[in-house]
Write a structure and sequence with these properties.
Helix content: 25-40%
Number of strands: 17
Strand content: 15-25%
Radius of gyration: 22 Å
Number of helices: 18
């Protein structure tokens, strides 16, 4: 079995729960050795978990450090957990030219800036793995030759352990409780989320909103609009199963341009036996089975009507809830994800380590080696957008210059 070096910008939150599950399950297999590198923080929950399981963790390590590069070269497989983080770009750039056996697992969907997949990132590893089949439709992946997609593109949907959620027993309560758990910030939530929920006319429906970091300002917005009595903003919660036990419907109104993929909280809501209402965005539509486990709404108005329909029909809620729990237990499992990763690791081990090349100069641009400007321009992907920033950076000593 190979030794695997996991590299991630930071370790916590939704991706952290996925990584903990993956690393735990691999650790139960004889021969697997794993180490973890984080460029930024490791949160307290993950730090405690690593200590209890005696995992080697290198936190707040520089992407440029010789220690890191030595760990990379010594590993059988380097598993890079990717989203658009500047320290990850710095690592890929600094390691360019060295040999390793690398797989990149993208924890963003790649559809909208700034969470895009530059050509330089796609070509860096032996295998590039998405976390949602939706990502195959994004511009940079869909434009790749069929030969590249067959040889280098894989998909493993991210999953965490839902055992505690499958055991949830609903708490008795009055009325119909509609809940949201996740990032309470308009960088991910639909900008009209409050309006969409408040437009639900059913008088016995109330809303619970859990998560941060902008919950206080959004709560103030609800109060300013006169909806304060319909919304209960709880901020960040540590016991998500307890929250889901109090709900009848899980509402998840995300902006179309959000960066998410596996959306673990949707799977947790399914495991808890809750029908889900989502907008017709790429990632959610690959998780929620419309009319079976929940409702995929075409637009904000349809979103409000879907909640009204479920609020008025306990039998439909029960049926979709049962379908959801069955789907989570049989199709959206941690064991399935781990088995798929073992298959990818085995595939990688049939190939030798290769020279990793990070060619990130935007077309027609020259700049100093390793500059922050050059890496930033690379991450933008789109030439028209790059040109806007090239003009904006024209005063900078490190200014990119158009080749004449």
């Amino acid at each position: 079995m190979p030794n695997i070096l996991h590299i991630t910008p930071h370790f916590g939150g939704g991706v952290g729960s996925v990584l903990r599950g993956l690393i735990d399950e691999l650790g139960r297999i004889d021969g697997f050795e794993q180490e973890i590198v984080t460029f930024d923080f490791i949160n307290e929950q993950s730090r405690k978990w690593a200590k209890e399981r005696r995992h080697a963790v290198y936190s707040e390590i520089s992407p440029l450090s010789l220690e890191l590069h030595a760990l990379v070269c010594a590993a059988d497989i380097v598993h890079v957990h990717f989203w658009n983080h500047p320290l990850t770009y710095l690592f890929l750039d600094s390691f360019s030219g060295k040999k390793a056996r690398v797989v990149i697992w993208a924890h963003c969907n790649g559809a909208y800036a700034p969470y895009l997949f530059p050509e330089a990132v796609l070509s860096f590893p032996q295998l590039f793995v998405t976390t949602s089949e939706y990502s195959a439709k994004t511009k940079t992946i869909a434009s790749q030759p069929a030969q590249w997609q067959s040889a280098h593109l894989r998909n493993v949907t991210s999953r965490c352990d839902t055992g505690d959620f499958l055991k949830i027993t609903p708490e008795e309560h009055s009325g119909v409780v509609v809940g949201y758990v996740g990032t309470v910030d308009y960088c991910k939530m639909h900008r009209n989320s409050l309006d969409m929920l408040a437009a639900v006319s059913s008088p016995d429906v109330r809303f619970v909103v859990c998560g941060g970091d902008c919950h206080e300002s959004i709560q103030a917005e609800a109060q300013a609009k006169g909806w304060g009595d319909r919304f209960d903003f709880k901020g960040k919660v540590s016991d998500v199963p307890a929250v889901l036990a109090e709900l009848d419907i899980f509402a998840y109104p995300l902006t179309k341009e959000h960066y998410g993929t596996g959306e673990q909280v949707l799977v947790e809501a399914m495991a808890a036996g809750l029908p889900q209402v989502v907008l017709d965005n790429g990632p959610e539509s690959y998780i929620v089975k419309d009319g079976v486990t929940g409702i995929v709404a075409a637009d904000p108005e349809a979103f409000s009507r879907a909640i009204e329909r479920l609020a008025a029909d306990p039998e439909l809620r029960r049926e979709m809830g049962e379908n959801s729990r069955k789907c989570a237990a049989e199709q959206l499992t941690l064991a399935q994800m781990v088995a798929e990763w073992i298959g990818i690791y085995e595939e990688l081990m049939t190939h030798p380590a290769k020279e990793c090349v990070f060619e990130c100069f935007p077309s027609g641009i020259i700049n100093q080696e390793g500059s922050a400007v050059r890496l930033f321009l690379c991450s933008l992907v789109d030439k028209a957008v790059q040109d806007i920033f090239i003009e904006a950076f024209s005063f900078c000593p490190e200014t990119p210059r158009r080749v004449v």
